């Protein structure tokens, strides 16, 4: 499934997009770097790690959007130590 926001540049996503748009743009850039034969072998591990982290963040955002009762729907209440 392709979302039109999946084609924003990193700059466009940073300036005008949502957090998800920015993460998707960064994910696409890192994936391109992994596919690029000019990427130094020493850079493959950190790029791969960051790509995995971005994928998890995006999945979390998507799961929260799909959850009708997301945690963000409930306002924070002041902490009451006496309730313990």
From TrEMBL:
Region of interest called Disordered, as start-end residue ranges on this chain: 64-84
Segments of skewed composition (Acidic residues): 74-84
Protein name: Terminase small subunit
Origin species: Nocardioides immobilis
């Amino acid at each position: 499934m392709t979302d039109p926001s999946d084609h924003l540049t990193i700059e466009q996503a940073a300036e005008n997009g949502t957090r998800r748009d920015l993460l998707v743009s960064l994910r696409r850039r890192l994936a391109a770097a992994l596919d690029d034969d000019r990427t130094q072998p020493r850079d493959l591990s950190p790029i791969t790690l960051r790509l995995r982290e971005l994928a998890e963040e995006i999945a979390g955002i998507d799961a929260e959007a799909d959850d009708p009762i997301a945690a963000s729907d409930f306002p924070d209440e002041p902490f009451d130590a006496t309730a313990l």
